[in-house]
Design a protein that fits this description.
The protein is of the alpha/beta class and 462 residues long. The protein is 52% helix and 11% strand. The structure holds S-adenosylmethionine. One of its GO terms (biological process) is methylation.
Length: 462
């Protein structure tokens, strides 16, 4: 382990590494913080007996858990990933962790966005992904050779491209996926939306006395982006980012367990059974359903499901819905803050909608649905994250902070959900959760004496 002084000197500019006698005095007087930390102990690594024991424990857990992959268990895979991440953190020294966050990852995000902007991954994939040199890639993308070299070295260091011998590069699995529009647009949309909002968030919170942001039209988003517009109105005014955002929303669920999977929410028993068939009967209204990917999935996974399916969203989104949607799906422009035109459907579904809005706005949205719901028949299905009080997944807590930065809203705990729904006269019948870090399915109804409210909120874990 390096000693504390060598660590400090390594991070100093060269003028300070060989200081004159006066600068040494000045330097020491400004180094109070560094001296007050016992860097030797703070930097302890795997050689430290307690750390080494932790590493051994984690390695054992990883070994034991690896059979989960063979069995194809999603919960097991998630646990393996959590243990492997914990192993990396345990192996890293504090400064390695900090440099990873502040140097490697912060720049990686920008470099990834630049790579997507110049279509690097499409170019890497040309000619059956045959390995390519830096000058070739520079030529294909219009970048200078020097800049391309710096970009490929960082992407190689971060594992996004494969560095072969003789200065040749090939795409990794992620690089190949980054040629798929919904994945590449995840980088585009998130970078453009998050950048100004997140980088100004510390300043915003300091200036507002560290209050929880709750105003969606005067919050961190408006402060960071220097705009009076709500996040969604800003998107409508910025069509390129809006289109990328819609693609990002389609990508968001890729490869994740879905509420309509057989081992998640019992659709047959709780949604389809009891459906009242009629000429125009609606099985499910997907309110603010984006481009309709959830309903298309439902058509694929539940081909025998009866009734009509209604896809609603803002007019601007509905205009861009593809024409060859499944014929059972009817697209319809609808503003969630106005009365719901479809009355008495079997279910009203919302995926990642209520987390966009603070409680007061959610109550406005929910009241319109309660008015449309038929007591004893209609169900409200909410597909959202439910944050556990302890052991929350970092994707969940990270999204909670993003919701704050973008919309002054939040992810919710089980109690938050129950309280919110109760406040508009709805009762939570059950909460189904598949695996950590993924969205749950919350079922709520207008309570009647005939309802079976006996379903518990025990997670259904395969
Ligand atoms: C986070 S996205 C979720 C989309 C979709 N449910 C999904 O899970 O992919 C939020 C959606 O709310 C829609 N939206 C925002 N404000 C709306 C409004 N006032 N009325 C209807 N839809 C709205 C947006 O256009 C966007 O499609």
């Amino acid at each position: 382990m390096e000693d504390s002084h060598s660590i400090i000197v390594e991070t100093m500019p060269s003028s300070v590494v060989n200081p004159s006698p006066t600068t040494v005095v000045e330097m020491l007087s400004t180094m109070d913080n560094a001296h007050s930390i016992d860097i030797d102990s703070a930097s302890s690594g795997p050689q430290d007996p307690s750390v080494s024991k932790e590493v051994q424990n984690l390695l054992q857990k990883i070994n034991a858990g690896s059979s989960a992959l063979v069995k194809g268990s999603e919960v097991g895979r998630k646990q393996l990933l959590a243990d492997a991440t914990a192993l990396c953190l345990t192996l890293e020294t504090p400064i390695e962790t900090l440099l990873r966050i502040t140097w490697s990852q912060s720049t990686f995000y920008a470099v990834l966005k630049i790579a997507v902007d110049v279509n690097l991954f499409e170019k890497l994939g040309e000619n059956d992904s045959s390995p390519k040199t830096i000058p070739q890639l520079a030529n294909l993308t219009g970048m200078s050779v020097e800049l391309m070299g710096r970009m490929m070295r960082h992407l190689g260091a971060m594992g996004v491209v494969l560095e072969l011998e003789d200065g040749l590069y090939a795409p990794s699995r992620l690089a190949k996926n980054l040629t798929i529009p919904v994945y590449r647009d995840t980088v585009v949309a998130c970078f453009d939306m998050q950048g100004p909002a997140l980088s100004n968030l510390p300043k915003y919170l300091a200036q507002t006395g560290y209050r929880n942001p709750e105003n969606p039209v005067d919050g961190p988003w408006q402060y960071g982006h220097k705009t009076p517009l709500h996040f969604f109105d800003w998107l409508v005014a910025n069509p390129k980012t809006f289109s990328a955002f819609n693609n990002h929303m389609s990508a968001y669920s890729q490869g994740r367990p879905s509420w309509m999977d057989p081992d998640f929410y019992p659709t047959e028993e709780r949604l389809i059974k009891g459906f009242e068939a009629g000429i125009d009967s609606v099985l499910l209204v997907d309110q603010a359903g984006g481009l309709g990917h959830d309903l298309e999935e439902l058509c694929r996974k539940l081909p025998h499901a009866p009734g009509r399916l209604i896809l609603q969203d803002q007019a601007k989104v509905i205009e861009t819905v593809k024409v060859d949607l499944d014929p059972r799906i009817t697209p319809m422009a609808h503003d969630i803050f106005t009365p719901q035109p479809i009355q008495g459907a079997r279910a009203y579904f919302m995926h990642s909608i209520l987390h966009d809005w603070p409680d007061e706005k959610c109550r406005d949205i929910l009241r319109h649905l309660v008015t449309a719901m038929k007591p004893g028949y209609s169900k409200l299905l909410i597909n959202e994250l439910v944050i556990p009080n302890r052991g929350a997944h970092p994707a969940t807590t990270g999204l909670d902070w993003l919701m704050m930065a973008l919309m002054s809203s939040s992810e919710r705990t089980e109690k938050d959900w129950t309280d919110l729904l109760q406040s508009v006269g709805l009762t939570v019948v059950g909460i189904w959760t598949h695996s950590p870090g993924t969205e749950s399915l919350i079922e709520a109804v207008i309570p009647t004496i005939l309802d079976d409210l006996s379903v518990t909120s025990e997670p259904v874990v395969p």
